[in-house]
Amino acid sequence: MRQIPLGPSGLTVPPIVLGANVFGWTADEATSFAVLDAAVEAGLNALDTADVYSRWAPGHAGGESESVIGRWLTARPGMRARIVLITKGGSDMGRDPQGLPASGLSARWLEQAIDASLARLGVDCVDHYFAHRPDDATPHAETLGAYDRMIKAGKIRSIGASNFSPEQLRGALETADREGLPRYSSLQPEYNLVARDKLEGPLLDLCRAEGLGVIPYFGLASGFLTGLYRSREDVAAKPRRGRLEVYMTPEGLRALEALDDVAARHAAKPAHVALAWVAAQDGVTGPIASATSVAQVADLVAAAALELSAQDLADLDAATKPAATTG
Q1: Cα–Cα distance, 210 to 4 (Å, whole number)
Q2: Which residues form the domain of 296?
């Protein structure tokens, strides 16, 4: 499978990054191992997780996804060298052992968070480490200084920013240049056919200008763009019901119609087209997408191989481009 540079990080990733948020949550350990085996064998060798996955689930404390991946790596000698391992820190993990907030981008917390992630993953180093959420209470220089120490200690290879605004990202890049500190080499925003305004405009323009890699999450809009959910009744019993219902609008249904049309031209599924559309956007490295079965891994592989025509892209663009960015 082809590999794409992740900005100036020195890493390459396939056209779709495997999202690991489901491991230990909606995919049990045995299923997660099967998904990971199938994905890497097919060439989907970049894994995206976070310390906070899946703290939102009842009875979970966070770290479940990293722990599953760690046990999988232990059970698969030699696998670490075959994957690009991505994790994140900065989301709310409750309290640290001293009773202080286990969240944010302070040096105090990040230096604890990376050690905890490495322990759960059972590795000495992660390839790419994201600031999961911006923290305006912590100066960029403090955060980047912590990353500098982590890189020099061999705990991380490169860094990225997730959920940053254009102003926050620009400020971090300017601070890095001014202070001689590591630069963010990628961005992880929300982006898909029905949430285009989360990236398009000044944020994507900045990433293009600075040469940053972009690996968006929610490429399938929490599953809405699979085309399996077309009414509120369809999502009533789903774990992501709240997220799915957001898209049950005339605009969302129009996007599904456009996906149906393009998918029919390629004898493909709407999900294949939705992910291929993200990957085809100028300045985007490739989307993150999760799988809870080996069959879904096959869908991700099909999406990575799908090449959309100029007409396909124009039709999808016409059906979904926000009016504010039409020009």
Answers
A1: 17
A2: 4-223+271-308
